[in-house]
Amino acid sequence: MAEGGASLPSVGSDAVKRRVTYFYEPTIGDYYYGQGHPMKPHRIRMAHSLIIHYSLYRRMQISRPFPAAPDDIRRFHSDDYVDFLSSVSPQILSENTHSHYRQLKRFNVGEDCPVFDGLFDFCQASAGGSIGAAVRLNRSDADIAINWAGGLHHAKKAEASGFCYVNDIVLGILELLKVHR
Fold this sequence. Notes:
Blueprint: E1 20-23, H1 42-53, E2 61-63, H2 70-73, H3 79-87, H4 90-93, H5 98-106, H6 119-138, E3 144-147, H7 168-176
Parallel strand pairs: 1-2, 1-3
Helix pairs in contact: 6-7
């Protein structure tokens, strides 16, 4: 991935060039919510491809996010929910036990928010990009920070919702609040 690069010209009247950082996890497009599901992580890969082909990457710093650690995710989400997300898989669900059904219902995981291969890795990549973006802003290393794999703001403290499992927006805000009170 390209590191460094130029900055983007300001749209404002100050004519100051803005330092842009962009987080991209190359494997993000490999995750698959399932047949017919409207959430398509491969679109993030398509957006990245456009950024490369239109040479926009030359005007920003591109970084691979560190996966958010379970403890990072627990800054907002409940322990039992994070434990569930980190352990659930299609293979485990194939056992079809009553306990699994109760947990799926309790954490609102099912049709809108299905269990798929690599679910927790996907959550860690998404959240890691948003936390990393907030860190760059906090350190004044960037004026603008982008994480196209983020914005999954529907997730609740102990429940998936609206295709979202981990609320990376809240995690990013919590990181920003370390500096901006």
